[in-house]
Write a structure and sequence with these properties.
By secondary structure, this protein is mainly alpha-helical. It folds into 2 domains: 34-76, no CATH class; 100-290, MetI-like fold (Orthogonal Bundle). Helices cover 76% and strands 0% of the residues. Helix 1 (2-29) runs antiparallel to helix 15 (293-321) and helix 2 crosses helix 3. The radius of gyration is 25 Å and the shape is globular.
């Protein structure tokens, strides 16, 4: 086990190196450059230096005058030593801005994942055990609707009904007008109230894929020979489904859930934008559009590490849910 983990960590470090190299080159090649915008603004001041002079000075100041490889190795050295620099777009330390926005997206993602699991997996199992019934067709329609509905359309529909027509929720924002006057508990409830529609949007649009995946795998497992043998032995249907069939269905589900670890921290860009929620998704989008390389590199490096870690956790969990799997 220890040798396997060490080997996978070494592979992950190599993958991380090349992934971040590609990302760094792409960010350097983007048509939007924060330094170019600043140089253009500075050059328009009366008696100022030319645009080219300002750009050369800023590139030398921020280390962008070096080649791609030299610049990447400089960033990698700073990243390893914990020197992440300041955000160009937000003009604050990268860690500070990341910390201020990521936890909101994390708690949203955690709540969405909780409801996704407790809704999608039982419904997928129910649809598989009642194949071609009204229940199966209903679950399939709900799943396909969740997969097919665009985020912006469903979110706009919820806002039209519950914000405009009924007036139960605010259209935008994380806090209300009287937020500063409320007590600590009141402020918590105010934020929770504003997060209801974004969370409902994410849950409805995310359960469809997991429901279909669970149903398909349950149908495949339930047609196996050992399930027929279990039924022939006289075991009750509940034991056959949840003790024998569902345990083997967990193997592909572990892959899905393990890969969802980065999603807890990556934020929901479209949903956060539509509801004006200042999470990490919307923050990172503004940073990338503004050409903020320090913040974008740190954010993408963090997501890359979580992705590699999620895949490793999924592989280790295989041995937990399936005794036939041996990591050696």
């Amino acid at each position: 086990m220890h040798k396997y983990i060490i080997k996978r960590l070494l592979y992950s470090a190599l993958i991380f190196f090349f992934v971040m190299l590609v990302i760094y080159i792409i960010l350097r090649c983007l048509p939007t450059s924060y330094l170019e915008n600043v140089a253009r603004q500075m050059s328009q001041r009366p008696g100022s230096k030319t645009y080219q002079e300002w750009l050369a000075q800023l590139e030398a100041q921020y280390g962008m005058d070096r080649g791609y490889l030299a610049g990447y190795f400089g960033w990698l050295g700073n990243f390893i030593t914990g020197n992440h620099g300041d955000s160009w777009f937000y003009t604050v330390p990268v860690i500070e801005k990341f910390h201020d926005t990521v936890w909101l997206s994390f708690w949203m993602g955690l709540i969405v994942m909780f409801f996704e699991i407790i809704i999608a997996i039982p419904l997928g199992i129910l649809a598989a055990t009642k194949q071609y019934s009204v229940t199966d067709y209903t679950v399939s329609i709900v799943a396909l609707a969740g997969i097919s509905l665009p985020t912006f359309f469903f979110a706009s529909l919820l806002k039209l009904v519950f914000s405009v027509k009924l007036g139960w929720f605010d259209l935008f924002g994380l806090v209300g007008r009287n937020y500063e006057r409320l007590s600590a508990m009141g402020q918590f409830l105010d934020k929770a109230h504003h997060l209801v529609l974004p969370i409902v949007t994410l849950v409805v649009l995310s359960i469809g894929g997991l429901m279909r995946y669970t149903r398909t795998n349950m149908l495949e497992v339930m047609s196996a020979d050992y399930i027929r043998t279990a039924r022939a032995k006289g075991l009750d249907e509940h034991t056959v489904i949840y003790k024998h069939a569902f345990r083997n269905t967990l193997i592909p589900l572990v892959t899905i859930l393990g890969g969802s670890l980065p999603g807890l921290f990556s934020g929901a860009l479209i949903t956060e934008t539509l509801y004006a929620i200042p999470g990490i998704g919307y923050t990172s989008y503004n940073a990338m559009v503004g050409g903020d390389i320090p913040f974008s590199m740190f954010y993408l490096a963090f997501i890359a590490i979580l992705t590699l870690l999620g895949n490793l956790i999924a592989d280790l969990l295989y041995a937990v849910v399936d005794p036939r799997v041996r990591l050696s």
